[in-house]
Specification:
The chain folds into two domains: about 40 residues; about 150 residues, TATA-Binding Protein, CATH 3.30.310. The chain contains five helices and eight strands. A six-stranded antiparallel beta sheet has the order 3-4-8-7-6-5, sandwiched between helices. The chain is globular and about 40 Å long. The N and C termini lie far apart (about 105 Å).
Length: about 210
C-alpha cells in the first residue's frame, strides 16, 4: 500500500480489481423467467384443455337420432343423405363454445346443426325442403342460388324461430347443412323487429302531424 503525499488517503497499489460480469445474473434472470413462463403455459394449457373438454361434452352424442331430435320433428334430415359425423361435430364445437363464453345454455343460440352428404343435386335438396317445411308450418323468408354468385341456400321462419338449409356441390356430392336457431337467437330477432317497428313509428309520427 502506497501513500499519496498530497493527501492522507492511502492509495492501493497493484492491478485494479476486476469487474464482475453481469451475464450470469442476466442469464439467470432470463432462465427464471423462462421457467416461470413454462409453468404458466402448462397451467394455462391444462385449464384450456379442460375447458375444451367441457365444451365437447355439451355437444352430446352426434348420431342420426340425436341430431334429428335437436333439429325437431318439423325439420327433417334429408332422407337420401348420410350424416357426416366429424363435420357435424366440427360445426357444433365453436357454436357451443360461443354459447359457453356468453354464459348461455347449450342450444340457446342454435338448437341443432347437421351436415350431410348426398349424391342428389342441390336443386333437388332445396326443392325437398321447400315442400316439406311448408307442410310443417315454415315460411320461406329468403332464397339464394348459385346464379347469384353465392351458395344455394334457403332461410325459413316459423313463429319466432329460424331455420337455414344450404346445399353445395363438392367433388361429385352435395354437402347439405341444416341449422335451427335456438330461443336466444329468436329473442334477439324479436327485439330487433320491435326496435325497428318503434323507430318506424317515431319517424312516422311527425309526418302525421
Amino acid at each position: 500500500m502506497q501513500t499519496d503525499p498530497r493527501v492522507s488517503v492511502p492509495v492501493p497499489s497493484g492491478e485494479p480489481p476486476r469487474r464482475r460480469s453481469m451475464w450470469p445474473w442476466v442469464l439467470g434472470g432470463c432462465g427464471g423467467c423462462a421457467l416461470l413462463m413454462i409453468v404458466l403455459l402448462a397451467i394455462g394449457g391444462g385449464m384450456l384443455a379442460g375447458w375444451i373438454s367441457d365444451v365437447a361434452r355439451t355437444t352430446g352424442p352426434v348420431d342420426q337420432a340425436a341430431v334429428q331430435k335437436s333439429l325437431g320433428a318439423d325439420f327433417p334430415l334429408y332422407p337420401a343423405a348420410t350424416l357426416d359425423v366429424p363435420s357435424t361435430q366440427a360445426a357444433l364445437l365453436p357454436i357451443r363454445a360461443a354459447e359457453k363464453v356468453a354464459g348461455k345454455q347449450p342450444g340457446a343460440m342454435f338448437r341443432g346443426v347437421a351436415l350431410m352428404r348426398t349424391r342428389e343435386t342441390p336443386e333437388k335438396v332445396l326443392a325437398y325442403y321447400d315442400r316439406e317445411l311448408k307442410q310443417a308450418g315454415w315460411s320461406q323468408v329468403s332464397s339464394r342460388g348459385a346464379a347469384s354468385g353465392g351458395e344455394p341456400q334457403r332461410s325459413y321462419r316459423k313463429g319466432r324461430e329460424v331455420a337455414v338449409v344450404k346445399a353445395v356441390s363438392q367433388s361429385g356430392e352435395t354437402m347439405v347443412t341444416l341449422m335451427r336457431g335456438g330461443p336466444e337467437l329468436a329473442s334477439r330477432r324479436g327485439r330487433r323487429r320491435s326496435s325497428a317497428g318503434a323507430s318506424g313509428a317515431r319517424e312516422a309520427a311527425p309526418a302525421a302531424r
